[in-house]
Amino acid sequence: MMVCEFKPGLEGIPAAQSSISNVDGQNGILEYRGIRIEELAEKSTFLETAYLLIWGELPNKEELEAFEHEVHSHRRIKYRIRDMMKCFPESGHPMDALQASAAALGLFYSRRDLHNPIYIRDAVVRLLANIPTMVAAFQLMRKGNDPVRPCDDLDYSANFLYMLNEKEPDPLLARIFDVCLILQAEHTMNASTFSARVTASTLTDPYAVVASAVGTLGGPLHGGANEEVIQMLEEIGSVENVRPYIDDSLQRNVRFMGFGHRVYKVKDPRATILQSLVEQLFAKFGHDKYYDIAQEMERVIEEKLGHKGIYPNVDFYSGLVYRKMGIPTDLFTPIFAISRVAGWLAHWKEQLEENRIFRPTQIYNGRHDHPYTPIEQRA
């Protein structure tokens, strides 16, 4: 009998071969289809980046215009999904509402024609188009308001911000939000992407694939960390409290949300870009004291834990960007999902190309030949 080495969390064990994205954790490099994230953040748009991830190459002008038109034309959600969302409890977390809504979308498109490129493209378009509308709709409906209809004249990111506030956003806000979506669109075999590929390997529909990934993203050790970063900064309260807070947390072995990464041993390149976006926001719309706290926290943690490779990750500064935009804290992770849908769909499509269902093994450490005890003899 072959003895397998147990790796908690499958750490370091390859689960797939992929050409979608690459991370060099020692040098702080992230690439989408071979293009550095810094270049995409500067020059691309989210929908162009999504096209690159899903179809493998940057689109030409005509391809991009057609793709953008398709996504913009499918932003309205079915009225039955909207009515279903109105029944969700107001106290429910938006990630739970999104997971249920994404799964419900599959009820309307349940045919699984997974070898048909038209079916695949239609599913990609619907999910990219509908997920932002669902997030914005639930945000308004849980306040007792009707959702705002998408605005056909606005691009992807500006339209989402418009649906949240029924107000056309400042162009700088819309561009910065678009860059945030680019930064979070894909990141190799993380937990939610693995969840998506496992679900995809069963040959179920892409709506179930995205719904399963949304459920995985919601945990505080994955996408939910950006919410907890803001709570941590609010708890610290001032720059003067940073060092005592860190010293106390180290003594109690408390994890610092937004710091450290399973892959990166240097500062996450996405965190560096996000930090520059924060500064652009503050330069135009006013300073936020929590950025001062965040900067001091980064400095002290690097001093104390830098030798262990503990540096800010993408979650540390993303919440400060969204906070400055006036976005509620519990929408930070659903926004992460809006972005990461592009990566999940890219992995769904790649999984279908040479599919084999995931069926890992386990190491059994329970009892053997244990007798059944009749109920009257049990203590």
Shape verdict? globular
CATH topology of the largest domain: Citrate Synthase, domain 1
Please report the number of helical segments.
16
Task: Give the CATH superfamily of the largest domain.
Answer: Citrate Synthase, domain 1
Would you spell out the secondary-structure blueprint of this structure?
Elements: E1 21-24, E2 29-32, E3 35-36, H1 37-43, H2 46-55, H3 61-73, H4 79-86, H5 94-108, H6 117-141, H7 156-165, H8 171-183, H9 191-200, H10 206-217, H11 225-236, H12 242-251, H13 269-285, H14 289-305, H15 314-324, H16 332-353
Antiparallel strand pairs: 1-2, 2-3
Helix pairs in contact: 1-8, 2-16, 3-6, 5-6, 5-10, 6-7, 6-16, 7-8, 8-13, 8-16, 9-10, 9-16, 10-16, 11-15, 13-15
Sum up the structure in keywords:
56% helix, 3-stranded antiparallel sheet, globular, mainly alpha, 16 helices, 379 residues, Cytochrome p450-Terp, domain 2, Citrate Synthase, domain 1
Describe this structure in words.
It is a single chain. Helix content is 56%, strand content 3%. By secondary structure, the protein is mostly helical. The chain folds into two domains: 19-220 and 330-353, Citrate Synthase, domain 1 (Orthogonal Bundle); 225-324, Cytochrome P450-Terp, domain 2 (Cytochrome p450-Terp, domain 2), CATH 1.10.230. The protein has a three-stranded antiparallel β-sheet with strand order 1-2-3.
